[in-house]
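Support request, please re-run this one:
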Amino acid sequence: MGDPAEEQVDAALALIRRLPQEAAVVPVQVLGELFNVLVRKGGKSRSDARGASLSWRDTFPVVETSSEVMLAAADLATDHQLGIWDAVILSAGSRAGCRLLLSEELQEGFTWAGVTVVNPFSSPRHALLEALLGKGAE
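Re-run finished. Output below.
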C-alpha cells in the first residue's frame, strides 16, 4: 500500500493538470506557504523550495497582496474567526474574480464575496469544481 501523503500529492497534481490553465490563479501567500511546507515538512532544501515556488509563479498568474486585500482579510478573519493568512488567500481570490478556492483546510461550502471554498479531495466532488473540470476536458 502506498504512502497516503504521497497519494494525496499525486491526486492534487492530477486535479491541477485537469484545470483549465486560464481558470487558475495563485495568491502570493500560497507561494510562501508552498515554500514553507516544502522546507519544513517536505525536507526540501531552501533552493529547491524556491525553484518550486518560481515554477508555480511561472505557470499560473499570481495575485498580489495589496493593502485592500489585507484590510478585507482582517475584516474576514475578524467576522468569521479565520486565520489571517487563510483570510488573505480568500480575499486575494475574491479580488481576482475567482469563484472557487480549493482548500482542504477551510470549511467546504463557505462562501465569501463570491468565492466558495471547495475541498478538492471530498467525494463526491463539489458541483462547481466538477463543472470547472468538465471545461478542462473539452
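Residues 4-97 form one domain. The mean pLDDT is 89.
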